[in-house]
Amino acid sequence: MSQAAIAYFLFSQRSDIRNLEDQNNKINTHLTREGSASMPARMHIPMSPALEMMDTTMEDEASSGMEKSSTPLTQCQLEAVGMKPVPVPGFRPICDKQGLYLPQQCFKGMCWCVNPVDGQQIPRATDCSRSAYSGALMTLTQDVETETA
Question: List the disulfide bonds (predicted).
Fold first, then answer.
């Protein structure tokens, strides 16, 4: 039964497959023509998290003459730059300035609430700003606020 279904789908999509093959052949001939230059692919990298994660300690040391210790990247920052795998391929979390996860994360039109410390989804949360500041997370944010004050 399953082989018959596969054969039916291949037969019904035969024209689509031919069109794709023709397009592929046209692209290959265009790329192999003499004198054609290929443009480098432009990658979309959000600059705000990338700038915050750049290690500029050497530049800072050279300009100030003092040694500075570089702080290690947080789990969120490592996932955001692609140095640590994430459960959903292609998803990159958004981190705040302290390296914590933003309470609301979104990917491909879907948004959910997460624990800012570990990035774990908060089930059944509807207001991410409220759910992020409840319970033990309230203590965490109060500690961060008192350190910055």
Answer: 76-95
